[in-house]
Amino acid sequence: MYAHRKIEIEPIFADLKTYLKFKRFSVRGLTAATNEIGIALMAENLSKLSKTVKQAHIMPKKSGVNCHEPAINTTYYFRF
Hints:
Elements: H1 2-8, H2 10-19, H3 30-58
C-alpha cells in the first residue's frame, strides 16, 4: 500500500510545497482548513489545466476514432 500511495498522493503534496509554497495552514479549525486545502488543490488543478490547454494549441489535432479525449485526465479531490 505504501508503494501505491507514494506514486499517487505524495507528488501532489510535494508540488503544493514547492510551487505554491503551501507548507502550513494559516487558519484554525477543521472547516477553515478544509476550505484552505481545497483552494490550494484547486490552484494545482488550474495549473495543470493551463499546461494541458497550452499543449493542445501546440499539438496538431488528431483525426480518427479516439479524437474526443477529455482535456484533463487527472484531477485531485480532497475529502474527509
